[in-house]
Amino acid sequence: GEKKNQKKKPLLVEIHLVESRTYHQIRNLARSKAALTSARTTANAIYCPPLLQALIDAQSGTLHAEEKDYKTAYSYFFEAFEAQKSAEHPGAITNLKHMLLCKIMTDAADEVPLMLDGKLALKFAGAELDVMREIAKSYQDRNLEKFIKAQDKYKDQLESDPVTKFHLKNLHDTLLQQNLCRLVEPFSTVQMSHVAKLIDLPVPVVESTLSQMILDKKFKGILDAGQGALIAYQDTPDNSTYETGIEVIENMGKVVDSLYTRAAHLS
To answer: Contact, 210 vs 223, CB < 8 A?
Structure first.
């Protein structure tokens, strides 16, 4: 019975991994993590074949990337890549892509060409990696137009890789916001249509992005829908005297309260 159970355990690990991936794709991260923990616990109790361990590592990398812990994610993707590369497993290139993605997400896009031209990636050269080179370059240059073009050009490569696609969507939003900030900076009031023309995007896209930035406190200002304009607030210097005054009043209040309590005890 014991031997039979041992044989079933690798299969159980795979089932937990499928469960973890499925929950991740429907954006239920808590359950995805729980299933991954079950997979790891089961794997620890048996001899886990290297390729199965690589799948666990790849999923661990995916979930760490979700939490924006790209450095830890990178080390997991690297472990998975090494194991799959030495076994000539076709999944190796996906983990390499995810390693490059982690570099871009940690503002180390300049390391991407070095990695791609090194002996680590040479045998994987092709469109799958070309997309990461172009994305890294456009992100490094903060060039939204090139970034969008690269995504369109390599649509097929990105469609087949939901992890990269998801993070590139976040990257696109970051780039868009950075570009908008730079464009509206010189103005105290500016027409939306003018900003849209400058950034070469439809007005509704610009409008919804700016309103989200205002909500997230990434931009100080308001949208005047009637005028179709963005009105920027002037940065006011922090009034430290006011802050200190409030603090003194609060502390005085506490002193009075404590004196009052003591007086009540004395009487």
So the answer is: yes
| Distances in whole angstroms, Cα of residue 67 to Cα of each of 61, 63, 174, 253, 265 | 10, 7, 16, 43, 54
3-state secondary structure of 216: coil
User: Is the model's pLDDT at 237 over the cut of 60?
Assistant: no
20, 42 Cβ separation under 8 angstroms: no
Note the helical H segments in 106-218. Answer: 111-117, 127-140, 144-153, 155-159, 162-184, 192-199, 203-215
- Given a contact cutoff of 8 angstroms between Cβ atoms, the answer to whether 117 and 132 are in contact is no
Q: Give the type of residue at 5.
A: N
Interval 218-232: pLDDT, tens: 889 998 888 889 998
Nearest to 163 by CA among 13, 15, 24, 20: 24
SS3 for 158-184, per residue? Answer: HHCCHHHHHHHHHHHHHHHHHHHHHHH
- What is the pTM assigned to this prediction? 0.76
Q: By mean pLDDT, which of 83-92, 134-143, 206-215, 233-242 is the weakest?
A: 233-242
Residue type, 48: C
Band of the pLDDT at 239, cuts 50, 70, 90?
low
Residues 232/184, Cβ–Cβ less than 8 Å: yes
Structure tokens at 69: 């812990």
* Neighbour tally for 81: CB within 10 Å: 27
